[in-house]
Structures are given as C-alpha cells and as structure tokens.
Specification:
It comes from Cajanus cajan. Its cofactor is Mg(2+). By secondary structure, this protein is an alpha/beta fold. Among the domains are: 189 residues, 3-Layer(aba) Sandwich (Rossmann fold), CATH 3.40.50; 145 residues, 3-Layer(aba) Sandwich (Rossmann fold), CATH 3.40.50. It contains 13 helices and 18 strands. The strands form four sheets. Strands 5-6-18-17-12-11-8-9-10 form a nine-stranded mixed β-sheet, sandwiched between helices. The chain is globular. The structure holds adenosine-5'-triphosphate, 6-O-phosphono-beta-D-fructofuranose (F6P) and magnesium ion. The site of magnesium ion (MG) has 5 residues, from helix 6.
C-alpha cells in the first residue's frame, strides 16, 4: 500500500494447513527465477517470521514463502491417491453426442497447464518515492510474484455423474449474481453434471428447514441474467460452519460454489477446512461478489463497474439540480462501507463532482480548511457545487455506534444526511443563500442488471469457478490479475478489506479531476 517497511512478514499459511504438502508432484516448485535456497536470518514474531534484508538471499526466501502462501489447496492434499480422469470439457471441438466424451487433439488441447502462472505485480518501481510505489524492500528491488492461472485442466478429479453441485449467494445484492449463477450451471452441464441445486437465501438456506433447495438446469437459468438481484436470494448471518457441513453431507453435495464478499469467503474457507477435517472430498470455490470492490489482489470484483455506471445517473441528477438552482449544492451518498472505490470511480467517471469524500481519507467539515468553507468558495466562484460522499466516510465526525448487522458488520451512522444538515446549517449561519439537494441512490446502484462489461466478466468467472472445482482445487477463489484470470487461496484475498491508497495514482487522479484541496 505504498508504505515501506524494513522488515516484511512471512505468513507461511495454507488454507488446509494440517494437510499441506510442499512436495506435491503436480506443482512445479522450480519457477525460472529460483536460486539455491539458503537459510536467511529470521526474526521470529509469534507464529510469523520476518526477513532481514541484509541477507543476500532474502529474495529467495520471499519467493519461496510467496509460492507456499499462494499454493492452491487440492484434493490430493487429503487423498494422495485420488484418481484423475480425462476432462469431459473440451475447449476445442465437440461431438454431436453432447455432453459426452469429447475427442482430444494431439497438437493443441486448449487446456491450462498446472504450472502456468500470472504475474501479480507488473510495475517496476525504481524508487520507494515513485508515485504509488509498492516496494518489498528498502531498495525497491524487483521481485516476481506469481499466482496460478485459472481455466480448464486436461485431467479432472470428479466424475460428472458423481457430482452434486450447489450454488449459494450471500451478503448484499450485487449486479451480475444471476449471470454467474447462470454460467456455473451451463458450464457444469457441459462437463456432464446433471445434479445441480441452488441453496436459497445464503448460508441460512443450509439450516432453515422451510427453505427448499432449488433444482437448477440450463432451462431454469437461461434468462435470469436479464434481471438484477439473485435468483436464489441472499442473506446475512445464518448457521455456523459445522451445521453447514452437516447439511452438505446430508444432501450429498460435493461441489459448492459460494458467491459473496469478504464475510462469505471467510465462511467458504471455514467450510473448506471443516470438509478437510472430516475427510470429505468436497470442492469449495468462491466467486468474489462486492460492489465495494474491497477484495485484495484482484483488478476488480464483478458488479463494481455496473454500480459505478448506475451511480452516474444519481450524480448527473444532483448536478442538474445544483446547476439549475441559485447557489445550488447537490450531495450524493454512495455505498462503500470501508472502501471508497465506488465514490472515487463514480466521481472520476462523471466529471461533475467537486468534492469526493471517502472512508480512507480523513476530512473536516468545519473550520477554515473544512469542506463547508470550500463549498462557500465554490458557490462564490462557480455558483454551484456537487459532493459525492461514501457511506463509510467521516465516521469520526459522527457519534459512535455499536450497532451491527446479522453478520457482525458495523452499521454506520448516516454521513450523507449529516453532511446535508450541516451544509444547510452552515450557510444559514453565515447568511449566504444555498439550495441543498440530497440524493441517496444506495440500493438502486446494486439492484440493477449487470452492464455488458460485467456480463462478460461474470460469464468468465462462472466458467473458471467450475474449471477450478473439476481440477480438484478447494478453498480457492477466482479473479482477474492484470486482466488475466487467476485462482487465489481464499485467506490471501480476505486478510483485510482492500482500501483506496491515499498515495495511489488513482486517488491523485481523482483529486486532479475534482480540483478539491485537502480538508484537514
Ligand atoms: N468470519 C466468518 N466466518 C464464517 N462465516 C462468516 C464470517 N463472516 C461472515 N460470515 C458469513 O458470511 C455471510 C455473508 O457475510 P457478510 O454479510 O459480511 O457479507 P459479505 O460476504 O462480506 O458481502 P458484502 O460485500 O455484501 O458485505 C453471512 O451469512 C455470515 O454469517
Ligand atoms: O443494507 P445491506 O444489505 O446490509 O447492505 C449494505 C452494505 O452492502 C454493501 O454494499 C456491501 O455489499 C456495503 O457497501 C453496504 O454497507
Ligand atoms: Mg462484507
């Protein structure tokens, strides 16, 4: 995140740690840059270790650790003798007896090799002071970080006729949920799976006896992407992991596709670990869903693009209202619990925002350098102004709350209403006319149908989720990394919410676009 530390932390964690094997022959541990392993000096802190950058071999240690952390948990970790069979999915050509066995081509198969990798970071920063620099060591050395490429494998670890696959959607709504459900079902059928079900209303559907699993097929899902929401319904809270795995066992589910955000993925990883503990051959695959875009390491999450696009309508209305009124001020509140990506990108896209306020950047409303003084300046100089505020912004200005939702997420105070009230009060107090209009499109930006770009994104994510399950992986999730599709072990992408970096080029671009000063 642009910060530089002389000591980096090595985790060495795996998602199924008790079953972890470094010697799995399926994975080539000798990437091209590997150099002889030397034991560098370690500074141990609890269960983690730190690298001493004066050690000439620290890079090797870092790469080894990285490779270990990003290794994908696999069915062979628990069942070393698990047999694979040739894939029933053929990327190249199909016979007429769909979905039977496909012929293979000796020269070109179109499968992903297990040793294919995607480069996680693509910029070489020559100095820690370079804009947005993300350096590992004080010298900003180039260290390759590789993650696993997503896609269909030549060998599969599940026989389609023995699969019962389930899909569950958890957390809040997000544009594209139906597109992902649809593509998972279609791809499963292409592999030859016939038993596919949807679990209604998130994890709750595993415990609530009144909720019946929904049979899914291509016919059922054919047109579901034409509307927003989730065919299966969503929920927060719900049963514990043990109850969920009991339910998986009772239902005979051996492939579980989990669509959700940070919380849902924490749950998916716990389900994966519990299945490992019980020695169940179940593949648990996540597909990150969040309009907040707060999942680490990936370019973006599905639904984010659509949410930003939908937010334009609210911003444009606020602009027109403000611009058409005498001393008009428009205020738009957008979602973003802890991360301000929607507000930042919507501000950049619209070109109509004068002030963008996000959770990651502290600001004052009052005082000579506060937002309100600047609004006065804008009214005096350009006659109107538009503010975009993310829901998690400026919480330090409001009374603390202990309220949480069913999943344990903090329910924040309403910064949008507060900004509106304080703006009205301020202009009244200084005796300057101001016509303040407030728009809160909160649920409108996530209840809509996915746009074309998200539609394609969801389709490819859905396909790759199924490929990952058939390849025998579990406890993983799928995303894009520098536009390439990759698999990640779940713990690596949810260790904390992804935040807007105040030193990033994107935030600086946003500041350039709005022209706003610091409000501190
Ligand atoms: N640490 C956790 N371990 C196990 N399950 C969890 C954990 N955190 C949340 N969950 C479960 O995951 C589900 C969704 O969590 P949550 O409501 O936080 O949404 P989310 O997946 O983060 O999505 P959103 O981006 O909409 O907030 C809930 O059913 C919740 O019980
Ligand atoms: O009202 P709900 O369903 O709890 O959802 C609100 C939350 O959903 C999110 O969009 C995440 O999905 C947050 O930005 C927001 O706080
Ligand atoms: Mg969450």
């Amino acid at each position: 995140m642009g910060t530089l530390s002389h000591v980096i932390t090595l985790h060495g964690l795996t998602s199924c740690s008790y079953a972890h094997s470094h010697s799995n022959p399926r994975f080539n541990t000798s990437l091209p840059t590997r150099v002889p392993r030397v034991f560098a000096k370690l500074k141990t802190q609890n269960s983690t270790a730190a690298i001493d950058f004066t050690d000439p071999y620290w890079k090797t240690k870092f790469k080894d650790d990285f490779q270990q952390r990003f290794r994908l948990p696999h069915v062979t970790d628990i069942f070393p003798d698990a047999a694979s069979v040739p894939s029933t999915f053929c990327p190249k050509k199909r016979t007429s007896d769909f979905p039977g066995n496909y012929p293979s081509d000796d020269d070109w198969h179109g499968y992903i090799n297990d040793n294919d990798r995607v480069l996680l970071k693509t910029i070489y920063y020559s100095s820690p002071t370079s804009a947005g620099a993300e350096c590992i060591d004080p010298g900003c050395n180039w260290v390759e970080q590789w993650v696993h490429r997503a896609g269909p494998r030549e060998k599969i670890y599940f026989k389609p006729e023995e699969v019962k696959a389930a899909i569950v959607t958890c957390g809040g709504l997000c544009p594209g949920l139906n597109d992902v459900i649809r593509q998972i079902v279609i791809t499963l059928e292409i592999y030859g799976v016939t038993k596919i079900v949807g679990i209604p209303f998130g994890y709750r559907g595993f415990s609530d006896k009144e909720l019946i699993e929904v049979p899914l097929s291509r016919k059922v899902v054919q047109n579901i992407h034409l509307s927003g929401g989730s065919l299966l319904g969503v929920s927060r809270g719900g049963p514990g992991v043990s109850e969920i795995v009991n339910s998986l066992e009772e239902r005979g589910i051996n492939m579980l596709f989990v669509l959700g955000g940070n919380g849902t993925h924490a749950g998916a990883n716990a389900i994966h670990n519990e299945c490992c503990k019980r020695r169940l051959q179940v593949s648990v695959i996540g597909v990150p869903k969040t309009i907040d875009n707060d999942i680490l390491l990936m370019d973006k999450t599905f639904g984010f693009d659509t949410a930003v696009e939908e937010a334009q309508r609210a911003i444009n209305s606020a602009y027109i209202e403000a611009h058409s009124a005498y001393h008009g001020i428009g205020i738009v509140k957008l979602m973003g619990r802890d991360s301000g990506f929607i507000a930042m990108h919507a501000s950049l896209a619209s070109g109509q925002i004068d002030i963008c306020l996000i959770p990651e950047i502290p600001f004052n409303l009052h005082g000579p350098s506060g937002v309100l003084s600047y609004l006065k300046y804008l009214i005096e100089t350009k006659g109107s102004a538009v503010v975009c505020v993310a829901e998690g912004a400026g919480q330090d200005l409001l009374q603390k709350t202990n309220a949480t939702d069913a999943s344990g997420n903090t329910v924040y105070r309403d910064i949008g209403v507060y900004t509106q009230q304080e703006t009205k009060r301020y202009f009244k107090e200084i005796g300057v006319h101001a016509d303040v209009k407030y728009i809160d499109p909160t649920y409108m930006i996530r209840a809509c149908r996915a746009n074309a770009s998200d539609g394609i994104f969801c389709t490819v994510l859905g396909q790759n989720a199924v490929h990952g399950a058939f390849a025998g992986f579990s406890g993983i999730t799928v995303g894009t990394c520098n536009t390439h599709y990759a698999y990640f072990p779940i713990p690596e992408v949810i260790s904390h919410p992804r935040l807007v970096d105040s030193n990033s080029r994107m935030w600086h671009r946003c500041l350039t676009a709005t022209g706003q000063p610091d409000f501190i």
